[in-house]
Design goal:
Elements: H1 2-11, E1 27-29, H2 35-44, E2 50-52, H3 55-59, E3 66-69, H4 76-85, E4 89-92, H5 100-112, E5 118-120, H6 128-138, E6 145-153, H7 170-173, H8 178-181, H9 188-192, E7 196-205, E8 210-212, E9 218-220, E10 226-234, E11 266-274, E12 283-290, E13 293-298, E14 304-309, E15 319-322, H10 341-357, H11 372-391, E16 395-396
Helix pairs in contact: 1-10, 4-5, 5-11
Nicotinamide-adenine-dinucleotide binds near residues 30, 121 and 181.
Amino acid sequence: MMGKEFAGALARFPHLTDLEVRPELVAICGRRLQPEVERWFRSIAPGIELATRDYREILARSDIEAVYIAVPHDLHAELYTAAIRSGKHVLGEKPFGIDAEANAAIRAAAAERPELVVRCASQFMYLPGAQRVARMLEAGAFGRIIEADLGFLHCSDLNPAKPINWKRRAETNGAYGVLGDLGMHTLPLPLRAGWRPLNVRALLSDIVTRRPNEEGTLQRCDTWDNATLLCEAVAPADAQAPAHPPEHGAEPAAGYAGQDEGAVQRFPLTIRAHRIAPGELNSWYIKVLGTRASAAFSTKEINRLWTLDYEPGGEQAWRRLDLGYESCFPAVSASSFEFGFSDALLQMWGAYFEEVVRGGVPRERFAGCFTPEETAVGHALFSAALRSQREGRVVPV
Ligand SMILES: NC(=O)c1ccc[n+]([C@@H]2O[C@H](COP(=O)([O-])OP(=O)(O)OC[C@H]3O[C@@H](n4cnc5c(N)ncnc54)[C@H](O)[C@@H]3O)[C@@H](O)[C@H]2O)c1
């Protein structure tokens, strides 16, 4: 699925108007690459020189500079580390390793090749509404953060007849279940803003425990369907402070909560990743409530941003703004056109290739791709969430 989305984004790459890079798709790989699938790829990427079922053939080509890897989670560590060791820039899909150990192995390989741009795919930060919230965070517009809600909700698993696939098996999707699948997408924006979860009480549900396989035989579906994480989080006291979150596992560093009463930014953060959220097709949302401003955005109303500006003693009124095509990377689209899922993906690809050209340095803080270090915070959070569910208590992250 995501390989095709990638090829589609690349075909549309010239839609982005101010980038000095023009990626070309020259090789594709799939474990069981079928002739009709290969034909489809060739129809939109006529420059394809190599179509193979063995990824090592791609890694052996010295003229291929970068690879995108979208495979089941149990293969992330093997393929990502092999690609990095072969000297390719890598954009790997989330969760960037099936578990914390696999994630650490990928990060270790990346650390050995600092000249390569190794990043994790996640496109939601590039949505216009998300960018607006990011800029408000950067400007410290919220004042003290009162509370924040992030989430990513799907509904198709409500259908018990939906066939099982690798994403619904712990062996291939990972013990995180929905957290490794949808949950990771909630994190790039808050982590880039410098937020950090300190602890978590996780409530995980396995709602549909069996699903039919392609032949109709019921099989054990052993992944968590829904996850609600109640966290205590910190944000940097100075919104301009760190571009990246501090080392996880350590006490909040200088600039974080605790050192100055007036600047304390400890707040409740709720993260929801649900595969069974009735009526929610593909809803990614963020809501931040603050003492000076609040904002809410959801892909359910993709063109719409809600904000509330507050002066002490003044009125409290939510304001609704239609956004149009506002983007980090300018595109040919008119600013009044609505922005969609494939536009966010295209922006992410613009961000990635620009980082490749600029040696890993994004043009601005919220235009940069999700880094391996940021994914490590996600893995620490999700590992703590599993423990919290098991032990029925709050667990430090
Ligand atoms: N960014 C997003 O919005 C988004 C959406 C869906 C999935 N994903 C992520 O993308 C990744 C892939 O998900 P998908 O939905 O595209 O899955 P998919 O099942 O549609 O595709 C997986 C592909 O991996 C290939 N594959 C498996 N083993 C291989 C091997 N040894 N060598 C080469 N190819 C191999 C298969 O041939 C298949 O084409 C996952 O990490 C998933 O979490 C991201």
